[in-house]
UniProtKB/TrEMBL annotation:
Gene3D superfamilies: Crystallins. One of its GO terms (molecular function) is structural constituent of eye lens. One of its GO terms (biological process) is lens development in camera-type eye. It comes from Salvelinus namaycush. This is Gamma-crystallin M1. Crystallins are the dominant structural components of the vertebrate eye lens. The keyword Cytoplasm does not apply.
Length: 186
């Protein structure tokens, strides 16, 4: 079970909200979030309500101010919703595809991949099928840039998904590295 506490002010001050599950809209609990503390588990936090907009992965630790979080790669300055990432102890398996709707070259991953170009000579990834485990996909190689949380399921068209995230460069989603969410949440 995960637990995250959000605070309206920096350095864990002001009104707070404790969360131990998904929260699609934090506005009824607080007007803004300027710091947070993850006491256990892992969470994805979102820029907009209903798990929309830019995303940022948070593991156990203290995040005393949004400016520091932004220097760690977070691309937004207020948290509006969050999703708890369940623990997964089994195997990991994901198929990535060069084109949308599972078209083009297909590669199967069972471990982290810091560059699909270096590892598979694949220049683009436009769809995927997550069969086992929970994954983070990154816009750039070496686990950099904007990220997206992927749980088991089919993701046929990253371009359509980017509309809900506020879009990425050229209005389309493009992932170049992938990481398993496993012992990161201990």
């Amino acid at each position: 079970m995960g637990k995250i506490i959000f605070y309206e002010e920096r350095n864990f001050q002001g009104r707070n909200y404790e969360c131990m599950s998904d929260c699609p809209d934090m506005s009824s609990y607080m007007s803004r979030c300027q710091s947070c503390r993850v006491e256990s588990g892992c969470f994805m936090v979102y820029e907009r309500n209903n798990f929309m907009g830019q995303q940022f992965f948070m593991r156990r630790g203290e995040y005393p101010d949004m400016q520091r979080m932004m220097s760690m790669g977070m691309m937004f300055d207020n948290i509006r919703s969050c999703r708890m990432i369940p623990m997964h102890r089994g195997s990991f398996k994901m198929r990535i595809y060069e084109r949308e709707n599972f078209g083009g070259q297909m590669m199967e991953l069972m471990d982290d991949c810091d560059s699909i170009m270096d590892r598979f000579r694949m220049s683009d990834c436009q769809s995927c099928n997550v069969m086992d485990g929970h994954w983070l996909m990154y816009e750039q190689p070496h686990f950099r840039g904007r990220m997206m949380y992927m749980r088991p399921g089919e993701y046929r068209n990253f371009r359509e998904m980017s509309m809900g995230m506020g879009g990425m460069s050229q209005g389309s989603m493009r992932f170049m590295s992938m990481k398993r969410i496993n012992d990161m949440c201990n």
